[in-house]
Amino acid sequence: MTNxxxxxxxxxxxxxTGSNTTENHPVxxxxxxxxxxxxxxxxxxxxxxxxxxxxxxxxxxRQNLGTDVAWINGMIHVIIKENLQDQSFIDQRTQGYExxxxxxxxxxxxxxxxxxxxxxxxxxxxxxLYATAKAGSILYCMGITQHTHGTDNVKSxxxxxxxxxxxxxxxxxxxxxxxxxxxxxxxxxGGLPNVYSGYQAVTDEGARKKxxxxxxxxxxxxKIGLKVTxxxxxxxxxxxxAMYIIGENPLVSDPDLNHAEASIKNLDFLVVQDIFLTxxxxxADVVLPAKCFAEKEGTFSNTERRVQRVRAAVDAPGQVKExxxxxxxxxxxxxxxxxxxxxxxxxxxxxxxxxxxGGINYARIEQQGLxxxxxxxxxxxxxxxxxxxxxxxxxxxxxxxxAPPAEAADDDYPLYLTTGRxxxxxxxxxxxxxxxxxxxxxxxxxxxxxxxxxxxxxLEDGTMVDVTSRRGSITARVKVSTKAVPGTVFIPFHYAxxxxxxxxxxxxxxxxxxxxxxxxxxxxxxxx
Length: 528
Hints:
This protein has helices at residues 21-24, 26-38, 68-81, 87-93, 97-104, 109-116, 120-132, 142-145, 150-163, 183-188, 205-215, 228-237, 250-253, 257-265, 323-333, 343-353, 436-441, 451-456; strands at residues 13-17, 42-46, 59-61, 94-95, 136-140, 174-176, 242-246, 269-274, 286-289, 298-301, 306-310, 370-371, 395-396, 415-420, 446-449, 464-468, 473-480, 488-492, 520-526. By secondary structure, it is an alpha/beta fold. The chain folds into three domains: 6-177, Dimethylsulfoxide Reductase, domain 2 (3-Layer(aba) Sandwich); 183-371, Rossmann fold (3-Layer(aba) Sandwich), CATH 3.40.50.740; 415-526, Barwin-like endoglucanases. The strands form five sheets. It has a six-stranded mixed beta sheet. A hairpin with a 4-residue loop joins strand 10 and strand 11. The protein starts with 12 loop residues before the first strand and ends with a strand.
């Protein structure tokens, strides 16, 4: 997030898109609901389902799946046409505006309505509301990123924010809501194939030399590694022979699960390190049990870039180790002696080699976390990014045209499927499905369908239905709901039985490598 969670209650307009906030981020949604219910904040929600947060919105814009670039360009068109842009911000702090203006020219509200289904007048009014706010905050999540054009979606939201000068100010920003508690920290620490910690490129000779000195090695490779979504096909082809999977359950969470399962089974050797025997761990040659969050010492970096202390609250069972201890022992047995006294010693190394974490240590975050970048121990941290300058100097507008999703509904597969989460289960259910109370609340998969489509296909609430895509088929229970809209069904992806990802499309965003989990074509038929 460019801004903090607390600032949500200090903004004038919130634009939420691609985020079922009340179910996926219930704590953050409480800030939104308070801002709207007890303050003067206005709310615009753009989502293909009538999710709960829509009930608090001044505008709910229902876009067709995979058409986000079009409606964002449509708002940009309206703002420029009505001269609502922040021209001073554009002139002083950005580049590429004329190219953006030229691209947006054709995205009239009427043209956008043809693509997205959003009524032209609703788009105009929402654009005016966001543009005329003193501070406007954009909140988004995986409904924006998990598309073959997800990177374009994110860049388009950045275009919109820069156009209106809603960056570098309190209550503004472009704020992605992270899907897990430390996914931000994992990326910060180099859990990506192209960077070291702090997003220092492996292709940068200076960064490599610094790491070589810190680690006492020579000739660190400058080759960029594989993304997760590139590893699976290479396992299928035999180019990747072994995998070491930590804290992930791809046999429920990966797209086109039938192909993913065949790929993982084709490995010569599979190691899984986790806290429970997940569906993936059940296929492993070696399972390494690790401590859970409540048994660990260390830090998490949350969605607002706040680095926070984590302390062990309970003792771990048996001889279970911390993740870093397991990794160190394996490295040592493979010929590179790796040893740390404790997690604090690791944090000291992180501060040494990571400029954005340079001023963060256990003593400073004993009581309260710090936002990176925090380059030295005198620095107070950075709650708001881009206050005076962007990292690259001037912010760059990207002129992006709309392109359709990888798969469209047709006569054979007439409905669109989108996937997501529910409040009472979490990710692949490794932890939540161990809880009797949560399973009582949300015991099984379901197919959320509109009243109109239920009537059209002769389906009744609570009955079983077969859902089939070009990749697979599952059986799940029908849930007729006012959240659903005609032409689109929703299935939560948590459940290994009736796994939604047996249906989803593994087509990838060419830049990020993220699969198009949020849109594919399906057909329904009554279950036998």
